[in-house]
Design a protein that fits this description.
The complex is a heterodimer. Chain A is mostly helical. Helix content of chain A is 76%, strand content 0%. Chain A has helices spanning 5-25, 29-53, 58-88. The radius of gyration of chain A is 17 Å and the shape is elongated. The model of chain A has no long low-confidence stretch (mean pLDDT 90). Chain B is an all-alpha fold. In chain B, helix 2 runs parallel beside helix 4 (115-133) and helix 12 (306-327) packs parallel to helix 16 (398-412). Chain B starts with 7 loop residues before the first helix and ends with a helix. The chains are: A mainly alpha, B mainly alpha. The A-B interface holds A 12, 16, 19-20, 23, 29, 32-33, 36, 39-40, 42-43, 46-47, 49-50, 53-54, 56, 58-59, 61-62, 65-66, 69, 72-73, 76-77, 79-81, 83-84, 87-88, 96, 98-101 and B 137-138, 141-142, 145, 149, 152-153, 156, 159-163, 165-170, 172-173, 176-177, 179-181, 183-184, 186-188, 190-191, 194-196, 237, 240-241, 244-245.
């Protein structure tokens, strides 16, 4: 069976879905940050699939930027989480309750 | 085509962004190596203000060029300087200057006075500047993320305060999620059109048939991502927490500048890329605008914390501004621009007063803390009354004209029921804005309550007076501002 663009699109939609569910249901903030990464990787799969289907380089360039952004977001996110952990000793979303959600 | 990668014209287009980044890096370096006396609160604020002056100078150049020769683009068409971009850049300069001026005292009182703060303010502004002028999905995405990442850190800048930590974390998770959704929408738009240029995408979208699944998915993910950024219901949950937890000058900056930048991005995408699909998104955004106004106004009524109340009020304002886009006609877009301009001054004024109540060791952010303020600081309570009346939309103050144009626009399009609801909600909003005025003028401070004092310095005072004067000026003599706003937004409509 040949892998077509449609297959990649199904994969990326699934990843988007898994990531969204992860963000909404998980209580460990590290896992929530990983779910965000999943969504960004769904974007990357889309971009590269389209880029190869269209025989263009634009999509791949875009995906490099998305990867860079994901790295920056992870760095800032973990930094903020460490600052929180120093004050509160927890990484569980439901124990972060000073401000009402 | 690969002869010149970065020409003088490209430099001219990018000049505001380059200036902001250079000044930001400069502040980081001078703060680390050159500044000995850290107690001096203005040593970092003054270079940041100098950056605003430099950016303003290059914006004057841009405006002159746009007026004489029309819009011009750079970097292979990925940035476009037109009246729209210049107008929004002016908003960001105003918002950033006010934020810097207020911060000098506030961050000192918090004991977190660092160069990074001002550098991040400038980096966020650079991102917003790119969002306003970008004409390419990659550029817009990078601009958005530059802004958002700077804001995550700014919101969490009070590292030893748990509220600030929590606010930053919530902002980061929901912000990253919405950026991810938006990027997903962008990737599908790229797949549909084979280009990242908004003009090319608009052509490809127009060629698609109605009810196209890929287009629908792109529209939904882009809308959700953008609605998160402007804090429209049902994607507004982050706003009250972030506004409450963040340092007050940052709250003001997020609520004004980040909202304006996200609206700029939204207008650009919906009025170019999705223009031909307007029939699909207009009812959707209309419904969201109504829900946003309902939730924002009614939730604001129940709040006891002033920053939270202003957060819900800003959600409600986002609903009104969204109506301008839904109406989609010339008047509506003019209304969006006038509204955002007025919003800068009235909202900054309100937050500057809240920031002035903050002193070492006391938060003083509850509505009760304003009780009897009239006896202690009569002048400032008059200013507060001006800002609150303007936020309600009472003539002759700036806030009135934004609402006026938006109501006019939706009536012209025949959305009478929407207009009725919007008008009712103005009355609801009057309730909670007037509550603050009542606390200042009519109530006495409680027995055991320590009366909150306003702690002013020259910067806060100047910012307050400037905001109040401009709120009055736009209200009494609106014509030049309306012309400016109209001219700029119509450039994007072409």
């Amino acid at each position: 069976m040949e892998v077509t663009t449609a297959h990649y699109l199904v994969l990326s939609t699934l990843l988007l879905f898994i990531g969204t569910v992860g963000i909404l249901t998980r209580r460990n903030i590290i896992v929530i940050l990983m779910s965000v990464e999943l969504i960004l990787n769904a974007v990357n799969i889309n971009l590269i699939a389209f880029s190869s289907a269209l025989q263009q380089i634009h999509g791949q360039v875009f995906s490099i930027f998305v990867i860079t952004d994901a790295a920056a977001e992870a760095a800032v996110g973990l930094g903020i989480l460490i600052a929180l952990f120093r004050n509160k000793e927890t990484i569980h979303a439901d124990e972060i309750d000073l401000l009402r959600w | 085509m690969d002869a010149i990668l970065f020409s003088a014209a490209d430099f001219h287009v990018l000049k505001p962004v380059i200036l902001l980044c250079l000044f930001g890096c400069g502040i980081l370096i001078t703060d680390a190596f050159l500044i000995r006396n850290r107690a001096d609160r203005w040593k970092n604020a003054i270079p940041a203000l100098a950056a605003q002056v430099a950016v303003a100078a290059s914006l004057v150049q841009h405006l002159g060029d746009v007026r004489s020769g029309g819009a011009f683009s750079g970097l292979n068409g990925s940035m476009q300087v037109d009246g729209f971009a210049v107008f929004f850049n002016w908003l960001f300069v105003l918002a950033a200057s006010l934020a810097i001026v207020i911060s000098a005292r506030y961050m000192g009182a918090e004991g977190e006075h660092r160069g990074e703060f001002y550098a991040l303010l400038l980096f966020a502004q650079a991102g917003m500047s790119v969002m306003a002028a970008g004409y390419d999905l990659v550029v817009l995405f990078i601009g958005l993320e530059t802004m958002a990442l700077s804001f995550y850190v700014l919101v969490g800048f009070l590292r030893d305060t748990r509220r600030s930590n929590e606010a930053a974390l919530k902002y980061l998770i929901l912000g990253a999620f919405s950026s991810g959704l938006l990027a997903y929408g962008f990737s599908i738009l790229y797949g549909i059109s084979g280009s990242t240029n908004l003009g090319e995408i608009a052509k490809a979208v127009a060629a698609r048939s109605e009810g196209d699944l890929a287009l629908f998915l792109a529209l939904i993910t882009c809308s959700v991502g953008l609605l998160f950024k402007i804090a429209a219901a049902p994607f507004h949950m982050w706003a009250p927490d972030v506004y409450e937890g963040a340092p007050t000058p940052v709250t003001a900056y997020v609520s004004v500048a980040s909202k304006a930048a996200s609206f700029a991005l939204m207008l650009r995408i919906f009025l170019t890329a999705f223009e031909s699909a307007a029939e699909a998104w207009m009812p959707l955004l209309g419904a969201i605008a109504l829900v946003t106004m309902t939730i924002g106004n009614f939730a604001a009524v129940t709040q006891t914390n002033v920053k939270r109340m202003l957060a819900y009020s800003s959600i409600a304002h986002a609903g009104y501004i969204l109506l301008g886009l839904v109406a989609g006609n010339e008047t509506g877009l003019r209304g969006v621009a006038v509204y955002l301009l007025a919003y800068v001054f009235m909202n900054y004024g309100a937050f500057a007063l809240v920031a002035a109540l903050r002193r070492e060791g006391e938060a003083a952010e509850d509505i009760d803390d304003f009780n009897g303020l009239y006896h202690r600081a009569p002048g400032y309570t008059i200013l507060l009354a001006i800002f609150m009346l303007s936020l309600t939309g009472i003539p002759p103050l700036a806030g009135f004209y934004g609402k006026y144009f938006i109501f006019l626009a939706i009536l012209r399009e025949g959305y009478y029921l929407v207009a009725v609801f919007a008008a009712i909600y103005v009355a609801v909003s009057a309730f909670y804005y007037f509550r603050l005025i009542r606390a200042c003028w009519l109530l006495e401070e409680g027995e055991q309550q320590k009366p909150a004092q306003l702690d002013m310095n020259f910067g806060t005072r100047a910012a307050l007076v400037a905001c109040a004067l401009l709120t009055l000026l736009i209200g009494i003599y609106p014509q030049p501002f309306i012309d400016l706003a109209g001219e700029s937004v119509l450039a994007a409509l072409r």
